[in-house]
Amino acid sequence: MTVVLLFAPVAGAEVSAEPVPAKARTLSDRGRAFHDAADYASAITAFTLAYAMAPRPALLFNLAQAYRLQGNCDDAALMYRRYLATAPSPQGRALAEAHLAGVERCVHKLPLPAAGNLVASPPSNALSTTRTVTRRSATAEVEKDVGVALTVAGGLALGVAAYFAVRAHDAADDVTAAYDRHAKWKDIAPLDARGKSAAKTAQIFGAGGALGVVGGVAMYMIGRHTRSPVSVTPTVRGVEVGMAWAF
Predict the structure, then answer these.
(1) Which residue numbers in the chain have pLDDT < 70?
(2) CA triplet 38, 45, 242: central angle to 5 degrees?
(3) Contact between residue 163 and residue 98 where contact means Cβ atoms under 8 Å apart
(4) How far is residue 163's CA from residue 128's CA, in Å, rounded to a whole number?
(5) 15: three-class secondary structure by DSSP
(6) What is the pLDDT of residue 1?
(7) Is 124 exposed, middle or buried (0-12, 13-18, 19+ CB in 10 A)?
(8) Percent of the chain at pLDDT above 70?
(9) What pLDDT sits at residue 106?
(10) Cα separation, 200 vs 164, whole angstroms
(11) How far apart are CA 72 and CA 80, in angstroms?
């Protein structure tokens, strides 16, 4: 089971000409490593943060795969639909639609199709029938909590940025007044340094705050579903045949 690389183009899909931020690449690679290690909760968190910085269709597909393999049918269906809305290639659409059909059967508690589709039908005398359970999605609750925390932290950072921006403006006014008084540079230099330091601090907190708010809102929206039905059907080879798609 593989996932789509963030920085690899999806055949037939419209790809943004804007470069992918380095942090988003790092988060995408981290999510792929978590996915390969079957740590789907951590993979979902990493892909979500990467998508907040670089909203690429590949990340929607990666999120759908991670949710599906985690057993979270509701969120998997949502991510597959969002991916299909990006007009992927015929191959990408066919694969996503096949997975979407499977998770929708899970959502609506329908039995799996007969032989020839994704999951083989077991012999009637060998294995039990399909059973469906509903469980609470702990990952969704964590994502919502983390989303709220990120948004609050981002808002606080933006407040700090505004404070230092005011200080930088005041320092600039003091420098202008000192020049008007024909003050010497040794007296003006500390004012100028104070203003530059405040302006730099405002930029740092402003960028971090904006990123926190965007990432928090994105994570909260993705984690807003709290319950998901899980369909479990034993077969002679296991319970599910996963499909792989590499780019």
Answers:
(1) 1-18, 109-144, 219, 223-247
(2) 35
(3) no
(4) 65
(5) coil
(6) 52
(7) exposed
(8) 67
(9) 83
(10) 9
(11) 12
- pLDDT number for residue 32: 93
Amino acid, res. 135: R
The residue count of the chain comes to 247
* 193 HSE (CA, 13 A, CB side): 6
Q: Tokens 């964590």: give the residue.
A: 142
- Cα dihedral 68, 92, 63, 80, rounded to 10, equals -70
* Three-point CA angle 141, 63, 13, nearest 5°: 150
| CATH tag, 22-134+227-232 | 1.25.40.10
Q: Can you tell me which residue has the tokens 């083989």? A: 120
Q: Calculate the CA 102 to chain-centre distance.
A: 22
Contact 41, 143 (CB under 8 A): no
pLDDT in tens, 86-143: 999 899 899 999 999 988 888 776 554 544 444 333 333 333 334 444 444 556 666 6
Domain locations in the chain as residue ranges: 22-134+227-232, 140-222
Q: Which structure tokens are listed for 244?
A: 């792989």
